[in-house]
Every structure is written in C-alpha cells, then in structure tokens.
Amino acid sequence: MHTDKLQAFVLSTLDYGDSDRIVSLFTLEQGRVRAFARGARKSRKRFGAALETFARIEAQARIKDGLSSLQQADIITIYPGIRADLARIAHALYACELVDALTPEGHPLPRLYRLVAAWLDRMETEAAVEDDRRFFEINLLNILGYRPALENCGRCDAPFGPAGALLPNGDEPVCHSCATTGKPLAATTLKTLRACLGTGRFGLVPFPDETLSQAGGLLDHALAAHAGRRLKSLEFLQQMSA
Q1: H-helix segments, the chain
Q2: How far from each other are the two terminal CA atoms of the chain, in whole angstroms?
C-alpha cells in the first residue's frame, strides 16, 4: 500500500485510547478522509501540533476504504490570527463542521477546498462577519448541488419576478402564485445570493440588513435540511450573537 501526500484542513479530532487519535481531514486530493493517527498525542516528531482543528497541513497517509492511516503531518499554518479572536474561532469551527457534515467521504471537491482556504485566509487578517459567513454558505451549497432555488419557483418553475419569493416551512422557495404564506424573500435578496455565485472573492457582495436577515433564514433552512445532525458550532455562533 503506497503513501499519498496530501494537502488538508483538519476538520475534527477524536482521542482514542491512551495516545492515538482519529482525525477527519478535508483534503485537496481525496476529499474528506477519516484517518487513524497512531501515537498522535505523544509523537512530537511525526505530528507535533499539526492536528488542531482548522489547521492547514501537509500530510502523508495510506488511503483505504473506511479508516485510513495517517503517517505524518506538517503544519502549513495554524492561523494564529484566527486563534487570537473568539468570534473568528467560532466561524472557523463552523466552517469545518459544515464541511464534515455535508461532504461525501473520498470524493475530491477542489472548488470547496479553495473556498474553505479563502475564508480562513480572510479571517486570518479580517474580522469575522455575517456577510462572509453567508457568502461561504451559499457557495458551499452550490458546489455540493444543494443550492436552493434562486431563479425559478420550486413548484411551478416560473421565474421569480419583482415580487420575489416565499419560503414555506419545509419547502423550496416558491412564487406568490404557488403559496400565500411563508417567509418573504425579496427580489433583491435573491439577486444578492446569485451575485455571490458569480465571484470567488469574499467581500465583494454587500448584504444590507434586511437582505442579510432574509438570506440567513433561507440558508439556515437549506443547511439544516442537508446536515442531518445538530451542529454544535452553530449553537456556539448563535450564543455569541445573542
């Protein structure tokens, strides 16, 4: 069995036994990988401080179905700027947990890898803001094929007009002809989210307050439908903003 060299983000770790760890990695080459790191809690030579959540690393691993074997990990960056600020830590943990929850195992997603890298790089030097979080979420959903309807009604496929759309409970956004109740989604909100898909750079699409609120409701709804589990990091974010 050969050893692969991987670029990766550490999504999560779980202590196992007295000295080992099970690590979830999001790699450029292999997508999400679960790996057993033997002696990781004691071996400074092979792992050091590399296996910290949201660290960016170079790893050597023997890839196989199920649980791979992590041989070595070297730090590219642990994002010290993020780790010095609680709000940035909360957003970085949230990004990792989302990727861990929503991505298939062993399926390369280079666009998503670059998106994660871009958001962490931005937070290393800039404050964590809700505009960037929502930009990340809509692009993540788009890359994974889970993006909610932004152009056409989820029921009748008619284009959304100037009246925008409604978000009924447990449904896709729909036009006003197909529903009379639901959370409103103004045409400007749908346009803003579409604009997020047209650029790969954070900070270029502004979210006015009303748009941010409506977009947040839509994205929270879509993410909850696909995550399949309660996200502890989201609860942490919500507590911080309360």
Answers
A1: 80-83, 86-102, 110-125, 130-144, 187-196, 209-227, 232-241
A2: 50
The residue-averaged pLDDT of 134-143 equals 98
DSSP 67: S
Please indicate whether residue 17 or residue 85 has the higher confidence score (pLDDT). 85
Domains in the chain and their CATH numbers?
Answer: 4-78 (2.40.50.140), 81-241 (1.20.1440.120)
β-bridge mates for residue 183, sequence order: 167
Q: Can you give the pTM of this predicted structure?
A: 0.95
How far apart (Å, rounded) are the C-alpha atoms in residues 161 and 125?
A: 39
**Looking at residues 166-186, what average pLDDT do you find?**
91
Closest to 240 measured CA to CA, from 128, 118, 134: 128
| Residues 145, 123: Cα–Cα separation, whole Å | 26
Q: Which of 90, 88, 72 is nearest to 239 (CA)?
A: 90
For Cα atoms 151, 156, 161, give the angle at the middle one, nearest 5 degrees.
40
Model confidence at 43, in pLDDT bands (50, 70, 90)?
Answer: low
What tokens were used for 108?
Answer: 């390369």
Distance of CA 207 to the CA centre of its chain: 19
Amino acid identity, position 163: A
